[in-house]
Design brief:
Helices cover 72% and strands 3% of the residues. The protein is mainly alpha-helical. It has a three-stranded mixed β-sheet. The longest helix has 47 residues.
Length: 336
């Protein structure tokens, strides 16, 4: 028997593995704070300067008011996400009757294995990739996954979604900081796409040999980031001076590199829960599926002005899945 078959027959059990640990909570908060706070500092400096320019008696009141507005709006989104206009903002829709007949049995099996009440969560389909984090009680899946995956692979995707929520995502505060950082993140993203820097870089890179193309891509990315950051640095220089402005804008780029191994660890932990629930081979198959997006963590890019957003390689995740399957096979079927 292969290690996959042995592990599937002898996984440790749902309640034992789908349990949130202190390390899971700490890791989720570290990733959130490292991703969001440096960019929040950039926007806070700009809002402070705007308050001074407008003659506000307490310039710091402007960033405080913006943060309060973002928190209130996020609370509205989290308390009633099933409202039609909020579903449009999130890019979600209810499953049709045919889709529900395929989803419900798969979800009930996953919830039973994990030892959680199936009724504690609701199932939704993603119409658009708005990169919005949704409340933990909402399980989302793409229509492509529903159409193209086998029943067992669909269960693996649902198990992965559940594993993310079991670990804890600090979902409410993710949404708060996404709204708070939106102005500066949107401006730099708009400059990057509006100037056509990405398209120009890709067009040049395709004409170069493989090694030269990689070197050029790295250099072009750095140059592009410097160009789109110039307006932010210039505005902050007027407020705090050149050196502090450069430092404040550089920190998000450095922190994005530092948060990568922590985000990878979170992804590996999520995959491990799915494997322990008995869906390791199916999850590996989903990660190799060319038409279906892999069940990755919620994107952290809207939290930060940096483009160096952490994204765990599917190949690395597949290797970790195989290692975990082998470990389970040895643990539950030791050699005689």
């Amino acid at each position: 028997m292969t290690s996959e078959v042995i592990a599937k027959a002898n996984y440790p059990g749902g309640t034992a593995v789908a349990r949130r640990s202190t390390a899971d909570r700490v890791r989720a908060w570290i990733v959130l704070l490292l991703s969001a706070l440096p960019s929040a500092a950039v926007l806070t400096v700009l809002l402070y300067g705007l308050g001074r320019a407008l003659g506000v008696d307490v310039p710091g009141a402007l960033p405080a008011a913006w943060f309060l507005a973002c928190a209130v709006w996020s609370a509205v989104c989290f308390r009633g996400p099933e409202r039609r206009w909020l579903l449009w903002i999130f890019g979600l829709r209810q499953p049709t009757s045919d889709e529900q007949r395929a989803l419900s049995p798969a979800w009930e099996k996953v919830a039973h294995k994990a030892g959680v009440p199936a009724s504690s969560y609701t199932l939704w389909l993603r119409q658009k990739d708005r990169r919005c984090v949704v409340p933990n009680r909402m399980i989302t899946i793409s229509p492509d996954s529903l159409q193209r995956l086998s029943p067992r692979e669909l269960e693996a995707v649902l198990a992965h979604q559940l594993a993310q929520r079991v670990q804890g995502r600090a979902a409410f505060w993710q949404l708060v900081f996404r709204h708070y950082n939106l102005p500066v993140v949107w401006i730099e993203r708009a400059l990057m796409s509006g100037l056509g820097l990405i398209a120009v870089g890709e067009a040049i890179a395709r004409r170069l040999p493989a090694h030269s193309s990689r070197v050029f891509s790295v250099g072009w990315t750095v140059l592009s980031r410097v160009l789109v950051a110039c307006p932010t640095v210039a505005a902050a220089t007027v407020i705090v001076g050149l050196a502090p402005a450069l430092l404040v804008r550089l920190i998000p780029e450095l922190v994005a590199l530092a948060v990568r191994p922590i985000a990878d660890r979170t992804e590996y932990r999520t995959d491990r829960i799915v494997v322990d629930l008995g869906y390791g081979p199916e999850l590996g198959g989903v990660l190799q599926h060319p038409q279906v997006p892999d069940p990755a963590q919620t994107s952290l890019s809207p939290l930060s002005v940096s483009l160096c957003t952490p994204k765990t390689s599917p190949d690395k995740r597949i290797r970790r899945i195989r290692d975990r399957l082998d470990e389970l096979a040895r643990r539950w079927n030791p050699p005689q």
